[in-house]
């Protein structure tokens, strides 16, 4: 299969992400086609000179769609070609498609290394973002004092991680292959599993074998180590495990690195304004493995009785002026300025219009691995979403299905609306693979598949859809649509996740709620209540969604907050539709 890697290049230099992607590709020895795109990296990254000669200079239209570096998997005219963006995802594809089994081993046990996207995995986030961000910061930020150098905390976190017991599958088997025999330690068999991780050394970041995680970390740690050495600081004296890891890595990948970067001393040291032999500060970090589950990550959790009372006060005390009638319709008392913008009427029109029996098999969610028990409900959800989209689009529109999963909605829309173009964006490799297979079977010419985080998506579009985009993902989609002045059709889920304090969105989002005195703490309680299958839960769900549509109404959108029918199609059945004003739309 032909793969093409697109790297941003300006005057023979690339960004740190471009450099790492190129390094992984060089190390894999793959015959990936390279396209060096004459394009600024778009990030604050310093420029790194690369050795690869400029073989092609294109202003690719793909760079309008998603961030660089990106990998195109498949031939140019392949209908189901896949665009992959994001360092871990790009690197995984490069390695996966190597002919060399030794290279493929870098994907670890069952090929899972860095498969979980960064927002779900601390480890992916560390390797794909945090180490890179801290390298950029160290190289570009003016330092506090010219005679003190603080070692980047990510390096210290790596040192702590390397101290922790190894977590790997088949660790006991591996231990038996190593020189240390558990039997020699005279430990009861049941204890061996527990202790095995402490008996093996962390030669590499995931254990005794080098993986993709090491490959992504290597360029940053090397660059940082060299910069520190320029100040007379020997990193290994302060972080011995990182020092040993780097030595081991250089033996394996040094050659690929040396053929990737052109002049390691390209970074302008004068800009750092450091005198030689400065005082070294090693920041304190948590003594923990980076594999550890983040206790701050969101969970639904139960509400305390105090929080439940607060939610009841918000709902019943009518600070939100939101109620549900017996027939399931909702009423909200809105300020006069919003009354004409927000419609909370019952949703009757968004029900089945599609004759599923007339559709080819790959359009049907049955082919998209939806289990039989959920199939009818999935069809009901798709019926409602598709009907709302069909009402909102015009001929020639570009529709983006954000968080498209296995492509149920995107593929259906592409099939039903042949004069529109549908782009599906999802960060889960396996789901995108299913979608790709279905697109190929249908030979859909009006569909594009992107495997990436939704926030990498850059393209112009007219309408954004998202069916059950988890938690904050719905709000990121909403934000993207508002910025693009695109229409939206959203059915959110995982409301409890919005209770997490470190999300990229500030809640509540709307002036409506802010002026009604709904605090972030109130909102967090509402969000957690929204995941409960009770009357208060359903009303809280609508209250969270009222904030979302009110946010869009504020930007001049005409919005409706309705429900997919029947209610039983999913406990998460709110349907948010927004059409930007000053835009005439005709039904196709
Ligand atoms: C519950 S599934 C819904 C999939 C599909 N829309 C459907 O209804 O079948 C949520 C999907 O969102 C994707 N996702 C979550 N956060 C994402 C993000 N930040 N960027 C891209 N995809 C994301 C997940 O990979 C998953 O496939």
From TrEMBL:
The organism's place on the tree of life at top rank? Eukaryota
InterPro entries xrefs: Glutathione-S-Trfase_C_sf, Methyltranfer_dom, SAM-dependent_MTases_sf
Give any Gene Ontology cellular component. cytoplasm
* Domain Methyltransferase as annotated: residue spans: 377-499
One Pfam family cited in the UniProt record for this chain: Methyltransf_32
Family as reported in the entry's similarity comment: Belongs to the GSTCD family.
| Protein's UniProt name | EOG090X0615
Q: Which organism is it from?
A: Simocephalus serrulatus
Give the source lineage, highest ranks first: Eukaryota, Metazoa, Ecdysozoa, Arthropoda, Crustacea
Q: Gene name, please?
A: EOG090X0615
């Amino acid at each position: 299969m032909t793969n093409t890697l697109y790297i941003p290049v300006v005057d023979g230099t690339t960004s740190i992400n471009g450099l790492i992607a190129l390094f992984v590709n060089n190390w894999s020895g793959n015959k990936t086609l390279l396209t060096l795109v004459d394009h600024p990296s778009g990030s604050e990254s310093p420029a790194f000179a690369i050795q690869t000669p400029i073989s092609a200079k294109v202003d690719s239209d793909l760079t309008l769609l998603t961030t660089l570096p990106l990998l195109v998997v498949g031939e140019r005219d392949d209908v189901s070609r896949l665009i992959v963006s994001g360092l871990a995802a790009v690197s995984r594809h490069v390695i996966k498609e190597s002919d060399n089994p030794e290279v493929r081993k870098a994907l670890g046990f069952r090929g899972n290394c860095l498969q979980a996207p960064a927002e779900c995995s601390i480890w992916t986030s560390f390797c794909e973002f945090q180490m890179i961000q801290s390298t950029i910061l160290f190289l570009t930020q003016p330092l506090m004092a010219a005679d003190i150098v603080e070692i980047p905390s990510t390096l210290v976190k790596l040192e702590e991680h390397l101290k922790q017991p190894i977590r790997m599958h088949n660790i006991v088997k591996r231990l038996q292959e190593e020189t240390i025999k558990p039997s020699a330690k005279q430990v009861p068999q049941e204890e061996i599993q527990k202790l095995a991780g402490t008996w093996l050394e962390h030669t590499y970041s995931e254990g005794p074998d080098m993986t993709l995680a090491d490959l992504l970390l290597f360029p940053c740690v090397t660059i940082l180590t060299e910069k520190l050495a320029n100040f007379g600081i020997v990193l290994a004296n302060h972080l011995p495990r990182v020092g040993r890891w780097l030595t081991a890595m250089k033996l394996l990948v040094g050659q690929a690195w040396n053929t990737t970067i052109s002049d390691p001393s390209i970074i302008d040291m004068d800009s750092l304004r450091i005198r030689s032999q400065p005082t070294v500060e090693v920041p304190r970090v948590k003594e923990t493995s980076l594999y550890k589950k983040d206790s701050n990550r969101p969970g639904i959790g139960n509400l305390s009785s105090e929080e439940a009372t607060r939610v009841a006060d918000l709902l019943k005390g009518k600070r939100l002026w939101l109620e549900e009638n017996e027939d399931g319709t909702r009423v909200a008392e809105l300020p006069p300025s919003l009354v004409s913008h927000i419609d909370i009427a019952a949703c009757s029109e968004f029900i089945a219009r599609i004759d599923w029996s007339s559709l080819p098999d790959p359009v049907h969610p049955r082919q998209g691995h939806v289990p039989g028990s959920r199939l009818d409900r999935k069809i009901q959800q798709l019926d409602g979403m598709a009907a709302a989209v069909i009402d909102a689009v015009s001929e020639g529109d570009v529709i983006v299905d954000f968080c498209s999963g296995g492509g149920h909605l995107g593929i259906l829309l592409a099939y039903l609306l042949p004069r529109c173009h549908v782009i599906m964006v999802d960060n889960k490799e396996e789901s995108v693979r299913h979608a790709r297979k279905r697109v190929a079977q249908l030979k859909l010419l009006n569909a594009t598949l992107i495997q990436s985080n939704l926030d990498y998506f850059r393209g112009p579009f007219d309408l954004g859809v998202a069916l059950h985009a988890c938690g904050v993902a719905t709000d990121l989609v909403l934000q993207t649509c508002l910025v693009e002045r695109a229409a939206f059709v959203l059915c959110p889920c995982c409301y409890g996740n919005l209770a997490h304090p470190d999300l990229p969105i500030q809640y509540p989002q709307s002036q409506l709620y802010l002026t009604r005195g709904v605090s972030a703490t109130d909102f967090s309680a509402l969000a957690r209540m929204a995941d409960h299958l009770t009357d208060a839960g359903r009303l809280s769900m609508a209250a969270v969604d009222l904030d979302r549509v009110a946010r869009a109404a504020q930007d001049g959108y005409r919005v409706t907050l309705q429900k997919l029918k029947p209610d039983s199609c999913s406990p998460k059945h709110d349907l948010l539709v927004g059409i930007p004003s000053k835009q005439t739309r005709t039904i196709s």
